[in-house]
Write a structure and sequence with these properties.
heterodimer, A: alpha+beta, Butyryl-Coa Dehydrogenase, subunit A, domain 1, Butyryl-CoA Dehydrogenase, subunit A, domain 2, Butyryl-CoA Dehydrogenase, subunit A, domain 3, 3 domains, 4-stranded mixed sheet, 14 helices, 10 strands, globular, B: alpha/beta, Rossmann fold, two-stranded antiparallel sheet, binds flavin-adenine dinucleotide
Chain lengths: ~400, ~250
């Protein structure tokens, strides 16, 4: 690399044996789509705290939101592998606005339990409508009194003839303000994880109310508190067998953690690139920031951590691809990735100085999005604990 | 019907291009390569014809280095049916046109669609040369293409200085695509997967029996002079004076 040539996303990414021509082309195609359909509107949508609903349709037409779902329901899965998913996470993260994709692709957590465990009738009713972008589905697990401790949820579904009557509330529900359906964890049995079922709730049913939650980051994502006040739902809306809902929840975990780790590394790399480019241009004390040793070393340090995390990510992805379920490593990978994101966001903010503190730039936004990655989808503490248990400690 | 579409491998217009120290060309290492944007429009047009008419085969063709396969794959991923790569080391426009004549003779397409120019050297010559060598009608810089009812002729709207020109002619013909002809699609992931299994034929240019001797020689390449900083003027008079005496544009 000749001195002073501007660093970019691709130049910071080492060659890797896991990618072939189809990954390269997917990256290319996706990058161009994002540059046209999303990048120009990021500031506007973040400030407006939502993006147009038409984006769901556009993302479906392009294929982004249909990836890795069965073709019989309108998905695109032939030939799709974990590395296409990594490419997708990397390219979307370069936009530097995680909230847009959190809501746009929220069916990534809401729909898989239905595809895996739902009745044929339910799959045919829900999946095609979601995959065309006409309907939206979110996932409601967390409650005001149960987050990490999923097994402790209190929302009850009482049997009443052919219906359940659901009472309770769900908290922090991504996409919840605009969703049509919620894949909901409810208590149908006794205490603990063996009393939990997954229930599909249409959110236009009487008794459903929602409140929008204001957040530190992810502004373009609509996050809701969803109140369920005697909501009548047919028993046929059960996703999988009664009282075995925990299985459906756990099924999501591997894919979700891998995807979150891939995005977190992508955000870390985006911070690295933004900081490096700024350091290459900004002059202080008669030279470029990049010529001050303290700043150069920050950049090298970011690259070191990003490279190490990337290697861990790709090996984990390969193992999952080979059919393994490396639970401990996926948990630790998520921790590694969010710590790397946190470090790079912090260092990039320092490199930008006051300019980084102003609203409307990627680094500032990513800085405000660190915690949701480190807490959502399994917090760092819970991930370490899970890994320790898996290790037999 | 068969449509032949040309695809050239060119440096990504967004990458920063540097002239090599010898002044013989650009620095190619580390460059990202893409399909010439006007060729993407050409591919898109062919695909739209295929979608409208059904029984159409779209063949993408590139003349160049082996790596041009990547760009042909992009054409296949967009939806073309098969690809032909003619391997040749830096052919000039005349050589490319002569090679294309051979392919047209072999493939017998009804329509050849090219980009109006390649964004690397901006020659804007191959389409016109090909039409001349074949003795076929041509429409360059087109922004609209409409088939007649019997599909034996087409009507094209061309972008010309000062307006639009509408011309109609019988097929087979040569067409070169301008920016406003259409908005090319993005290759979808299933398209990318299918492209891996579509046929790609490789031909050595030397085997075609055409004279590849370059007619154009690049003597020297130099970057444009670096822009110097502007300056503020105090009054309109000073501005007019500077435009007349210094910039010599008035
Ligand atoms: C923006 C956003 C979007 C979200 N979207 C969704 C969604 O779509 N659907 C959904 O169901 N949920 C969603 N969540 C909720 C998310 O999954 C939870 O916030 C997360 O599981 C943590 O739960 P909690 O917030 O209740 O924290 P708590 O569980 O109360 O934890 C508080 C702190 O204590 C730590 N802690 C807890 N237990 C232990 C322990 N045993 N040992 C050590 N430390 C512990 C945690 O790591 C954390 O640091 C979202 C959250 C956010 C912020």
């Amino acid at each position: 690399m000749p001195k002073n040539s501007l660093i970019d996303f691709d130049s910071t990414k080492p060659n890797s044996p896991f990618y072939n021509e189809s990954h390269r082309q997917w990256r290319d195609s996706l990058r161009r789509w994002l540059a046209k359909e999303i990048a120009p509107y990021v500031e506007e949508w973040e400030e407006a705290e939502e993006f147009p609903l038409s984006l769901y349709k556009k993302a479906s037409e392009f294929g982004l939101s249909r990836l890795n779902y069965p073709e019989q329901y309108g998905g695109l899965d032939s030939g799709f592998d974990r590395f296409h998913a990594i490419v997708t996470a990397e390219e979307t993260s370069q936009i530097g606005a995680g909230g847009i994709f959190a809501s746009l692709l929220v069916h990534g957590i809401g729909l898989p339990p239905i595809i895996a465990l739902g009745t044929q009738e339910m799959k045919e009713r829900i999946a095609p409508a979601v995959l065309t972008g006409d309907k939206r589905i979110c996932l409601g697990i967390t409650e005001p009194d149960a987050g990490s401790d999923v097994a402790n949820i209190k929302t009850r579904a009482e049997r009443d003839g052919d219906d359940f009557i659901v009472r309770g509330s769900k908290m922090f529900i991504t996409g919840g303000m605009r969703a049509d359906y919620m894949t909901t964890a409810v208590r149908t049995g006794g205490p603990g994880m063996s009393g939990i079922s997954l229930l599909l709730i249409e959110l236009d049913r009487p008794g459903v109310a929602r409140t929008k939650l204001k957040k530190q980051g992810w502004w373009a994502s609509d996050t809701a508190a969803v109140y369920l006040d005697e909501v009548r739902v047919p028993v046929s809306n059960l996703i999988g067998p009664e009282n075995q809902g925990f299985l459906g929840i756990v099924l999501n975990f591997n894919g979700e953690r891998l995807a979150m780790a891939a995005s977190a590394v992508g955000y870390a790399r985006t911070c690295l690139v933004e900081a490096a480019r700024y350091a290459q241009e900004r002059q202080t004390f008669g030279k470029r920031l990049a010529d001050h040793q303290v700043i150069r070393h920050k950049i090298a340090e970011m690259q070191r951590q990003v490279n190490a995390t990337q290697a861990y990510l790709e090996i984990c992805a390969w193992r999952v691809q080979e059919g393994e379920s490396p639970i401990a490593d996926l948990a630790l990978l998520k921790v590694q990735a969010t710590l790397t994101m946190e470090f790079c966001a912090r260092e990039a903010m320092q490199v930008f100085g006051g300019a980084g503190y102003l609203r409307g730039n990627k680094v500032e936004r990513i800085y405000r999005e660190v915690r949701v990655n480190a807490i959502g989808g399994g917090s760092e503490e819970i991930m370490r604990d899970l890994a320790a248990r898996q290790m037999g400690l | 019907m068969k449509i032949l579409v040309t695809v050239k491998r060119v440096p990504d217009p967004e990458s920063s291009i540097k002239v090599n120290p010898e002044g013989t060309g650009i620095v190619e290492s580390g460059l990202k390569w893409v399909v010439n944007p006007f060729d993407e429009i050409a591919i898109e047009e062919a695909l739209r014809i295929k979608e409208a008419q059904g029984d159409v085969e779209v063949v993408v063709v590139s003349v160049g280095v082996s790596e041009s396969q990547e760009q042909l794959r992009t054409g296949l991923a967009m939806g073309a049916d098969r690809a032909i790569l003619v391997k040749a080391d830096r052919p000039d426009t005349a050589a490319v046109a002569k090679i294309l004549v051979k392919l047209v003779e072999k493939e017998q397409p009804t329509l050849v669609i090219l980009g109006k120019q390649a964004i690397d050297d901006d020659s804007n010559e191959v389409g016109q040369m090909l039409a001349h060598l074949l003795g076929w009608p041509q429409a360059t810089f087109i922004s609209k293409l409409t088939f007649a009812g019997d599909k034996a002729s087409v009507e094209c709207i061309r972008e010309v200085d000062g307006g639009m020109e509408t011309i109609a002619f019988a097929l087979p013909a040569i067409i070169t695509a301008d920016l406003r002809l259409n908005e090319p699609r993005y290759a979808s992931l299933p398209g990318i997967m299918k492209a891996r299994k579509k046929p790609m034929e490789e031909i050595d240019a030397a085997s075609l029996g055409v004279d590849l001797t370059p007619r154009v020689r690049i003597k020297k390449m130099a970057p444009p002079p670096a822009r110097t900083a502007g300056r503020k003027v105090e009054s309109v008079d000073e501005l007019i004076n500077a435009l007349q005496t210094e910039a010599k544009v008035m």
